Amino acid sequence: MTYLASITDTFETIRERLGFDLDTPGFAEVVFALGVSFGLNLIIGTLYKATYRGTRYSQDYVHTLVIVGTVTTILILVVGNHPKAQAIGFGMFAAFAMIRFRRNLGQARDLAFILFSMMTGMVVGARLYPTAAATTIVMVAAIYILSKKEAFAPKRASHQLRIRVNNDIQYDQAFGPVFEEFADATELISVESIQAGMMTELRWGILLKSGAKVSDFMEKLQVASGNNRVILTSTQRSFDN
Predict the structure, then answer these.
(1) Is the pTM of this model over 0.85?
(2) How is the beta sheet containing 199-208 ordered, strand by strand?
(3) Of 22, 59, 129, 178, which one has the fewest beta carbons inside 10 Å?
(4) Tens-place pLDDT, residues 132-156
């Protein structure tokens, strides 16, 4: 507590000397705020890259995180200290409503990182620098730990299975023994008639048994399907950058 109090006192002294306690931020504080926002958003961008697990990693997206966070700081500094702040605020939200984010978000967490970056920029723009630094560091540590500890991950990777069979095959009887040998759980998702009704395409959700060999599983499925098309796709992203 004494150490934290000392840091707070030191920061307050710096604020007074640089004129950070004025009602309207001066040039020195604006530069300082932009530097803090840029630095914190760089940390957020680095965290995103370090914890990304997909195959669509985009450098432009990380740059966007940093830019959005920094620009938000500028907007909050202006809106929060301008005599016509309310009018500017409405104009800002109107502008945001007209602008769409020009990227298809590959993962739900992409949206969360955008909000994280904007919230950091807002707190810095509100001139709450210690709060911005503390909350960013805590959130970054928490997200990193969740990612590296595989928190809330499924016990085993799940897969989606697609098989094409001739219409004369009784697929329940043909694939049942194979599923019992290699899978803990199966769910028939869809049955679709293809190739002008001459064949049937089946889709299952599969939870493979621990230690099951995919090569053996695929070989037996191939035989059971009459050597027709068999596709097994993992639905869990576990790629490293």
Answers:
(1) no
(2) 183-194, 199-208, 158-166, 230-234
(3) 59
(4) 999 999 999 999 999 888 777 665 5
